[in-house]
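Appendix B: complex inputs.
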Amino acid sequence: MIAFRRLRVAVFLALRSLARGNAGVTAMSVSMMTAVFVSVMFLPSLIAGATTGVTSQLVGTLTGDLSITPDGQPSLADASAYLEQVRAAEGVAAATGIRRVGTQVGRGGDTLAVGVDAIDPESYAEVFTTPQHLLEGEYLRPDDTDGILLGIGVAGADETTRRTYSSSLKTVHAGDSVDVTLSGGETHTFVVRGVYENGFPLSDQGAFITVAAADSRVSDTQVSAEIRKAFDALDEISAAVGDAADSAGELAGGADALASAVGSLDASATRLASGAWSSASGATDLRDMASSLASSAAAAARAGKDLSRALDSAGTSVAQPAVAAASASAATAGDVAEDAAALVADCPPAQPAYCGSVARHAALTQDAATAAATSAKGTRALADSLAEAAVSAHTLAGSLGSLSAGAASLADGAAQVARGSTDVANGAASLADSTDTLLGEAERVAAAAHDLADALQTSTKDSAAPDQASRDDVLARLDSTPSAPSKDSVTRIVIRTDLVADAAVVEDELEPLRAGVQFLSPADLSSMIQDQLDTFTLIDNIMRVMSLLVAAITVLIITYVDLTNRRRQIGIERAIGIRSASIVGSYVIRSVITAAVGTVVGWLLFRFVLVPVVEQHPFQFPSGPVVLEIVPQVTRSNVVILLVVAALAALLPAVRTVRMRILDAIWGA
Amino acid sequence: MTDRIDKVSVVTDLFPGPEQAFEVPQGPVPAISAESVSKAYRLGSVRVQALDAVSLAVVPGEMVCIMGKSGSGKSTLLRQLGLIDLPSDGRIHLEGREVTRLPESRRAALRLERLGYVFQEYALIASLTAEENVYLPAKMLGRRRRECRVRAAQLLEQVGLGDRMGHRPKELSGGEQQRVAIARALVNAPAILFADEPTANLDSISGRTVMETLTQLNRDLGVTVVFVSHDPDDRHWATRQITLRDGRVEGDDEAPP
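Resulting structure:
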């Protein structure tokens, strides 16, 4: 009751304030809410439009309401009977079979990889809208056996502004001839009857011929060609197996040769091992001899050194004193001789006897001096010889030393050789062992190669292709069969349901026909644009939050400014007993009413201006033209969110203001 | 609730109608009384003692003029009595009940139901007409629209504005606005009507009209009025004059008739 009173006063104040308040501010608030509403409506509607557009194009031109495709096989045989059963099912308005018969359409040098479908023109037109979208020429007649219907994405038709133009044949028009490569690989010429344009790139990339045209070409010849190809393939396989057997034979021969080579290798290794052993013992003898040589040489060297030292000391202790003595006696003799000569010279002529004796003595002295000199000379020569002998002895000792060192290293070398020879002998022994093992392996390999060659030989005989007679028999029987299996088969069946029937219900109806086939609804296919839509939804959420933030802040500012201007009035209202709840409520209600009016205006603007304008000028998306589609659920949630945001944005500053003290509000700063 | 309706019926007596049963609080119970009411507040770092142990009692039917110089505390006293502000100390009784310790929501209810307040400045809601301004407190009290309109019409007639009911505040003169404010203050039949220098912003003729209106209401209808003025000439409108000086009661005299 009390709450109702407060609400009544709040509504009263809000309505009066709206009716008699600042019309400019109110209009601005309403416009802002209108703008926000339109902006939060735009992207969801665009996404909905894109989804609906793609789905309706998929349903109308590619998948129908339900597609049936064979499970695990390329095609569904006995299609007419199956189709009759499908058509009889509850909820099925129409059904048509489609057979993929070609892979390529070309004209002149240009070819385009295009799925060429064989259709029954009558039932196709009941299921699909494509026949209603002819850009030029006419639709196929059921009995047309050399006409083809091309999508704008294939023909091009000189429509240079189309996005698909550059990837099309560009200049093909109704009446022109094109070459169609059928699945069998044969190329046939067809006349273009018409060019259609669905405005949906996925389905504008199609080419259609009649079932009659396909049957007249894709018949026994293709099947027998397939069989012939199979025979050829068998031959090739057989030949390949033969070749393989031959190769295996050669391989076995090679393996044998290898085994014998390894055998010789093994023998050599054994010999090598024994040779190595004898050379090892020779090397040991040599080492021993070298050792004794070395010790002899060392002894000789020592003897040479001793001799040399003896000669040196002889030179010092014997030769030098001898030379000195000889020299001294020679000098003395010389002196005596000179004295004698002087006596002779001084000898008075008056005493000839004396003088004669003196002269003889002098002569003898002279002889002695001469002899002494000669002796001294001989002694010196002897000493020189001794010295020379000592030098020679040195040299000899040095040579003996070198010889000894040489003999020692020779002995070392011989020792190493002896060790090496032993290692070599050991290595040769293990080599001989290895070659033994190797020989065993080589023999096994040879045996395996023989086995393989034998096996291949056998399989060559087994895999031999049927002989020519039986082949001819098969082909002849095939050619004589009037109805080949490829006729009356379809790649898929497409169903259009009754307006009232749900695809899922029809699926249940068709349950008995489900063996060996898959059911596919457009929902399964439209998932291919799901990624794009998810991105859009993300962008939408971001934009929506931004718009709502702008709206919230604007309402907040408007309310705040309004409240600041009316602070005194609010103080007076509270002073005379008007409850805070009523005052806050009046601002919230005013904001909500403003938002509601803005929303209504926005909705009207969106529904009756923006949507029709976009319908006239659709957005061009890669998936085709897109218009705006209002989703009631999104509209409702947008309205609710906007009103809540408006209420909250007014609530915050209003609560803040009524919490002030009355005195401050009326008289305060 | 019944209690409240009984009190409200006091004033229905002012506007003769079928419902005549009422009881006027008589005897010793004052309409409002202050008991050692003090009010101090800070102005920057200065502590201002606006009221200092003021005690007084207003008997129903009185027309009290609170006089004093600027800063004497007269407006502060009126705000305490009018339950717009809370005293720092002391107690206030409204019709015998202590109201100083009530929560703001209860005091707001009392302001709405038992007190009328006329402000110095124009204090009407700009987006409402004179009539709507007058009946807003009655609406807040839950009166029906028809009842509200009848009462507003009677009150506006009473204050001499019977022909200006549909006018917005900006279409009225200052004196007329004050008289609308008086009518609004009376709409819920208050025990007391407070007026805070109601003529301060008016020319002398308008001021005189406003004071005459108050006097007439008091004299003819027995409305208890407490008003504040700094103009010594206003004392002759009152039956009793309380003079404040520096937050204290300096004089309390019965005015000459």
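Chain B touches chain A at residues 79, 82, 84-85, 105, 108-113, 115-117, 119, 123, 125-128, 132, 136-137, 139-142, 168, 184-185, 188 (CB under 8 Å).
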